[in-house]
């Protein structure tokens, strides 16, 4: 589904705000944990169980997955049965934060809408077609309307690729991103899109107006610069960010540059943010 969207009609809530439930995908792709996969299902079962003690979990499993095997692991970890609901949706990887739906709310009536951004395996992996279909399938199964974001480019509609881990919002007009992830040529998600283009469609669909562009993410990041690895809003006016004190480490310079940007950044009211530094 798609329809005309006016700038500012949507707002994306921050992750620290009250939420109804969490979506999690069950692990199956052994290539994501070479040599370590044996322990992954039990680890995810433990995470699900901990969350289920206080809120609902929607658990995605593949159509061919043996549900009884999963239930056995969840029972071992004492999950709360009434808070876990299974959905059979084929997927390529567990990383639903990146491939899954982005929820926004109407500023007029608070009604939820799913944003279905394109997903292409971080412009790195070829097996992403199932993951790219997840938002639409969740929309149909949960009966939450979806919108496919686009931007007018050279008199044509361009449907941008964007992962959930590539940005972070405070729910009050500000957004964190990195140039490395969205503007570099390596693992380029959207060839031809400029910084201005990103800000146009992010303002339209996420309800943000204050863009805080950090430079680079950390070394070895498979996503090439996701913001969720380094800096996050933990309140409207507080940002938690990674630092590296060892000057010999490769991440020292990168994270120090980001810290300087954050220290000079201001919210939509012109006030500086409180910065919490977290050592690597």
Give the helix/strand layout.
Blueprint: E1 10-11, E2 21-25, H1 40-52, E3 56-61, H2 67-76, E4 84-88, H3 96-99, E5 102-106, E6 112-115, H4 129-132, H5 134-142, E7 146-147, E8 151-153, E9 156-158, E10 168-169, E11 174-178, H6 179-183, H7 195-206, E12 210-214, E13 231-235, E14 238-243, H8 251-264, E15 274-279
Structural account:
By secondary structure, the protein is of the alpha/beta class. Helices cover 25% and strands 23% of the residues. It contains 8 helices and 15 strands. The strands form 5 sheets. A 4-stranded mixed sheet has the order 1-5-6-7, sandwiched between helices. The radius of gyration is 19 Å and the shape is globular. The protein starts with 9 loop residues before the first strand and ends with a strand.
Radius of gyration: 19 Å
- The oligomerization state is single chain
Q: Which term fits the overall shape? A: globular
Overall mean confidence score, pLDDT? 95
Task: Write a brief structural summary.
This protein is of the alpha/beta class.
Features:
8 helices; 15 strands; 3-stranded parallel sheet; alpha/beta; 280 residues
């Amino acid at each position: 589904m798609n329809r005309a969207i006016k700038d500012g009609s949507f707002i994306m809530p921050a992750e620290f705000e009250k939420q109804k439930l969490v979506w999690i995908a069950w692990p199956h792709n052994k290539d994501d944990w070479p040599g370590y996969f044996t322990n992954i299902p039990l680890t995810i079962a433990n995470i699900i169980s901990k969350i289920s003690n206080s809120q609902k979990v929607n658990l995605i499993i593949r159509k061919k997955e043996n549900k009884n095997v999963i239930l056995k692991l969840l029972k071992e970890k004492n999950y709360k049965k009434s808070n876990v609901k299974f959905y059979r949706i084929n997927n390529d990887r567990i990383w639903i934060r990146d491939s899954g739906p982005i929820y926004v709310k109407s500023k007029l009536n608070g009604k939820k809408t799913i944003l279905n951004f394109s997903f292409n395996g971080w412009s790195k992996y070829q097996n992403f077609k199932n993951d790219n279909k997840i938002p639409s399938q969740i929309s149909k199964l949960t009966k939450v309307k979806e919108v496919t974001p686009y931007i007018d480019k050279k008199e044509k509609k361009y449907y941008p690729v964007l992962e959930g881990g590539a940005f972070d919002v405070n729910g009050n007009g500000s957004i964190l991103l990195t140039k490395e992830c969205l503007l570099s040529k390596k693992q380029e998600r959207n060839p031809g899109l400029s910084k201005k283009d990103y800000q146009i469609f992010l303002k339209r669909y996420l309800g943000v107006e204050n863009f805080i562009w950090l430079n680079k993410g950390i070394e070895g990041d498979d996503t090439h610069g996701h913001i969720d690895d380094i800096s996050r809003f933990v309140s409207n006016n507080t940002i938690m960010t990674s630092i590296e004190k060892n000057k010999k480490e490769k991440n020292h310079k990168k994270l120090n540059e980001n810290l300087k940007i954050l220290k000079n950044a201001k919210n939509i009211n012109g006030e500086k943010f409180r910065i919490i530094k977290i050592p690597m």
